[in-house]
Amino acid sequence: MPLAKSDLTGLFTAIVTPLTADGSVDIKALQALVRFQLEAGASGIVPIGGTGEYPAFSRSERRDIVAACVDAAGGKPVIPGVLSTGFADALEAGRDFAAAGAAAVMTVTPYYAPGTQAGMRAYFQRYRDSLDLPVMLYQIPRRTTVAAMADTVQAMAEDGSIIGMKYSSYDMPDFIRTIKYCGDKIAILSGEEPLFATHVALGAQGGVLASATIYPKIWLEIFALAKQGKLKEALKLQDSIDPVVDSIYVETNPGPLKTYMELAGMPVGGVRLPLLGPSPETLVKLKAAAQYAKSVKLA
């Protein structure tokens, strides 16, 4: 059966793409990372988003990454990101991922030539009509400089273009409006670690989080508390991972995250250009965060 709104609950980890020393995709490490997430209790996997370095890979590499994740996921949903700028490229990627066994795709709002709100709605409507997979809207305006407004998301939900969305923005008034307008129609998933517990308490069904690629269990605990209405307790637990979150976002994700993972004993290789390894100043912060996590037994 196709993935539905009700399936999008809990933690969907935005995983990194492990690389070998020569910069090629490390399929063995990638599949081990997928299994680590699912054994910890994640509901599904989101590869090849921003954390997965979508722009850095070729079309064939992306297809192989998704296929490897599907193979390792054992039936759990794999929802790859689609970060292409144009409709034809995005559709090509979506069809590749469908052929590789993806359960849905998480497609970013069209950018560079973003169009109007009506244009974005038409874009997603045609995209869903042209693709034999459910679609999640990926909203991250700090990267794309454009956002679908709450009433536009509502229209997308009502016309069946999307079954959910990853909400990566600090615009709380807009988030509240989006929950009000269509929280009962689609699954809204938080994409912001600092706001995760609050988003869940306000109606988000879960999250797509990058730091969960190394610490899934704590985010699952935070989710459970927030879902039960225990926001104060959830925020207190979230405080314990804040030093790590702060350090891995000092520079463009996933550069610092991959270095942090190595410091924490889970090496996944480096990043591809135009990303580089973290600066000396960032490395100091990452080492301090890793030492902190070790001292408090963060897991």
Topology:
Elements: E1 10-14, H1 27-40, E2 44-46, H2 59-73, E3 81-82, H3 87-99, E4 105-108, H4 117-130, E5 135-139, H5 141-144, H6 150-158, E6 164-167, H7 172-182, E7 187-190, H8 196-201, E8 206-209, H9 216-227, H10 231-239, H11 242-248, H12 255-263, H13 280-295
Helix pairs in contact: 1-2, 4-6, 6-7, 9-10, 11-13, 12-13
Structure description:
By secondary structure, the chain is α/β, with parallel strands linked by helices. The chain has a single domain, classed as Aldolase class I (TIM Barrel, Alpha-Beta Barrel). It contains 13 helices and 8 strands. The model has no long low-confidence stretch (mean pLDDT about 95).
Mean pLDDT: 97
CATH topology assignment: TIM Barrel
Q: What's the count of strands?
A: 8
Strand content: 5-15%
CATH structural architecture = Alpha-Beta Barrel
The largest sheet is: 8 strands, parallel
| Whole-number tally of structural domains | 1
| Structural class determined from secondary elements | alpha/beta
Percent helix among the residues?
40-55%
What is the top-level CATH class? Alpha Beta
What is the first-to-last residue Cα distance?
34 Å
Shape assignment: globular
Relevant CATH superfamily: Aldolase class I
How many helical stretches?
A: 13
Q: How do the SSEs run, as a string of H and E?
A: EHEHEHEHEHHEHEHEHHHHH
Low-confidence stretches: none
Strand order of the largest sheet: 2-1-8-7-6-5-4-3
Integer-rounded radius of gyration = 18 Å
